[in-house]
């Protein structure tokens, strides 16, 4: 590991003042420290922000404001989250291990980096995300876990966070602070598609700090869910995952929320499927049709063509379960 400096931030202003060139914020360290050990990342300094914001508060609008320093376990176990946003609690509990969830923070989880194996292989693999302009060994290589939507010729990686998927479905909002002041940003707009610059994962400005995540009130989310399909039942990242909530009235879909994990460089808001569903019949056939519409532009790679039918079937099954119809 390359030597680095460490400082614990006293408050958000102190953290931002310390976030100079070459420094990084430190959450639970469960991803960043691994990347430093592998020399994928070499920050000159770490600014520890774990003590800054660890409260979960009710908002005036009936939602929740979650501090960026809240540990994953605390969020998943919070009563209001389990009752009002079960898709979020389930997504967190589907990720990593109990020990890692006890350490990992909400802010760090959103900004964890891809699990593409070539990205971690500093010994011999070409990776545009790690070394811009070096090439991408995943494109002609082993790409079973990679993206089927929104990839580019520079990078076909997927975003690994489970928690980010329900946050996209719920239309959660980030509270940010930087040297230019505070702003808010929908989680749906946080992560980028790779394009020509896969080394840039998000639209955050350098040194910008996530201070909190706001969940809006969403009564239909009370009966929402998250389903993760993976190679083994724990300690594995999603091949495909689905966060969903649906409101049905008289057999017709009144409202629906749908987001996908494991399919793209960012947690994927299934806007096409949502549009196809609203106002239509709540039947398994309509759900399958809407899921197929979402994947009309899918571009599978050599090893991951199975993700299209897998995701289509998973969306259909999840919506059918929530709507109480036969799949
Ligand atoms: C073996 C293993 C299995 C795993 N399995 C899963 C899984 O199945 N699903 C899943 O979703 N995740 C999984 N994870 C990943 C785990 O969830 C992440 O490592 C964790 O959520 C990252 O949180 P952290 O607080 O430790 O982040 P850190 O490692 O501390 O930081 C990650 C990034 O976020 C930045 N950062 C941290 N806080 C802030 C802030 N407030 N503002 C701005 N930037 C910030 C850091 O600078 C860094 O770039 C796994 C990890 C391991 C090691
Ligand atoms: S898919 Fe992206 S992260 Fe993986 S090797 Fe290619 S450029 Fe690197």
Order of strands side by side in the largest beta sheet? 4-5-8-6-7
Helix content: 25-40%
The arrangement of helices and strands along the chain is EHEHEEEHHHHHHHEEEEEEEHHH
Largest sheet: 5 strands, antiparallel
Based on CA inertia axes, which overall geometry fits?
Answer: globular
Poorly predicted parts: none
How much is the radius of gyration in Å?
20 Å
Task: Provide a concise account of the structure shown.
This protein is α+β, with helices and mostly antiparallel strands and 327 residues long.
Written account of the structure:
By secondary structure, the protein is an alpha+beta fold. The chain contains 12 helices and 12 strands. It has a 5-stranded antiparallel sheet, with helices on one face. Strands 9-10-11-12 form a 4-stranded antiparallel sheet. A 3-stranded parallel sheet has the order 1-3-2, with no helix packed on it. Helix 2 links the parallel strand 2 and strand 3. Helix 10 packs antiparallel against helix 11 and helix 11 packs antiparallel against helix 12. The radius of gyration is 20 Å and the shape is globular. The model has no long low-confidence stretch (mean pLDDT 97).
């Amino acid at each position: 590991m390359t030597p680095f400096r460490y400082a614990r931030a006293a408050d958000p202003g102190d953290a931002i003042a310390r976030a100079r060139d070459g420094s990084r914020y430190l959450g639970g360290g469960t991803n960043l420290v691994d990347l430093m050990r592998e020399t994928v990342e070499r920050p000159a300094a770490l600014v520890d922000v774990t003590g800054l914001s660890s409260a979960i508060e009710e908002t005036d609008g009936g939602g929740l404001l979650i501090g960026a320093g809240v540990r994953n376990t605390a969020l998943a176990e919070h009563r209001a989250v389990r009752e009002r946003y079960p898709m979020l609690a389930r997504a967190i509990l589907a990720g990593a291990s109990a020990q890692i969830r006890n350490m990992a923070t909400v802010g760090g989880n959103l900004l964890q980096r891809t699990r593409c194996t070539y990205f971690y292989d500093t010994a011999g693999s070409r990776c545009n995300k790690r070394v811009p302009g070096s090439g991408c060994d995943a494109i002609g290589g082993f790409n079973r876990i990679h993206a089927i939507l929104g990839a580019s010729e520079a990078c076909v990686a997927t975003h690994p966070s489970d928690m980010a998927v329900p946050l996209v479905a719920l239309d959660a909002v980030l509270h940010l602070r930087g040297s230019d002041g505070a702003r808010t940003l929908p989680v749906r707009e946080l992560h980028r598609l790779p394009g020509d610059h896969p080394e840039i994962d998000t639209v955050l400005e350098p040194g910008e700090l996530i201070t909190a995540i706001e969940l809006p009130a969403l009564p239909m989310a009370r009966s929402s869910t998250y389903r993760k399909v993976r190679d083994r039942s724990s300690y594995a990242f999603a091949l495909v995952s689905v966060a969903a909530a649906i409101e049905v009235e008289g057999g017709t879909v009144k409202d629906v929320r749908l987001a996908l994990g494991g399919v793209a460089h960012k947690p994927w808001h299934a806007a096409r499927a949502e549009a196809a569903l609203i106002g239509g019949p709540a039947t398994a056939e309509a759900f399958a049709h809407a899921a197929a519409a979402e994947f009309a532009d899918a571009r599978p790679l050599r090893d991951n063509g199975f993700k299209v039918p897998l995701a289509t079937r998973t969306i259909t099954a999840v919506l059918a379960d929530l709507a109480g119809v036969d799949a």
